[in-house]
Design goal:
Length: 250
């Protein structure tokens, strides 16, 4: 792979206020409300939290792996490091970014390890979503403050078995879910959702409305109110909700 082959594009990052708002919304509400915007299933199935309690939102840097073929890729772990595109994906990192990796669901390739992810955090990266594995997991979990959503972990390095890094900041398939470079990733213990940047403002508006009435309904249910009346909020209960909003100063 030549130096020209390793020239990779950057992403267009959305306004920070949209990212911050969606972080507060969370994955479950984002996924549910996106159906109203025409996206039936924005959830990335497969990767699950490996650092419980972390909540992140940020624009997606994308990295695509492909099956190895020896006439195309036959390098060892440290042979020509600057020709290895998984490094170049991380070179684009800016504060708040999330790296999303289509590793083809491989359970035998650790696409990043401690040193690579230390670099990622040092550049301001906040989340790692891999449809596959990382390596050095005990060190990464102990020493780094990153959200980790993975299929699993392995001692193997990234190209040790049957895949290799092929492209950076291109559309990728995360276990049948499309992720475009610059999509806003919303991830927490519920899972990972990819929000198209062009829908982020509309989603934030819908989700904010949902969060308001859901807070009211939760209080009513906890006090013994009936599910039929308060979840979802019925027309009969809406005057109560409006009065509650006034009391809250909303």
């Amino acid at each position: 792979m030549s130096e020209a082959d390793t020239h990779t594009p950057d992403i267009v990052r959305p306004p920070q206020e949209l990212v911050d708002g969606l972080r507060e919304v969370g994955a479950a509400t984002a996924a549910g409300e996106m159906r109203k915007l025409g996206i039936d299933n924005p959830t990335i199935q497969g990767p699950t939290t490996h650092n419980p309690g972390k909540v992140v939102a940020g624009p997606a840097l994308t990295l695509q792996f492909m099956p190895k073929r020896n006439d195309v890729y036959n390098q060892d772990e440290y042979t020509g490091p600057e020709r290895q595109l998984h490094r170049h994906a991380l070179y684009h990192t800016q504060p708040g970014d999330v790296i999303c990796v289509d590793a083809r669901g491989s359970m035998t390739s650790g696409v990043f390890g401690n040193m690579m992810l230390t670099f990622f955090q040092g550049r301001g990266g906040v989340g790692v979503v891999v449809d596959g594995c990382i390596r050095d997991f005990p060190i990464v979990q102990r020493d780094l403050d990153l959200g980790l959503w993975l299929r699993g972990v392995t001692p193997n390095f990234h190209t040790q078995t049957n895949i290799y890094p092929y492209a950076v900041n291109v559309p990728i398939a995360m276990n049948e879910t499309l992720v475009l470079p610059g999509d806003i990733i919303v991830a927490d213990d519920d899972g990972v959702v990819a929000v198209p940047a062009k829908l982020a403002a509309d989603l934030l508006d819908l989700a904010s409305q949902h969060a308001e009435w859901e807070e009211f309904s939760r209080d009513k249910l906890l006090a013994g109110g009936h599910l039929k009346r308060y979840y979802p909020l019925s027309d009969e209960a809406r005057p109560e909700y409006e009065a509650w909003k006034k009391e809250q100063g909303q």
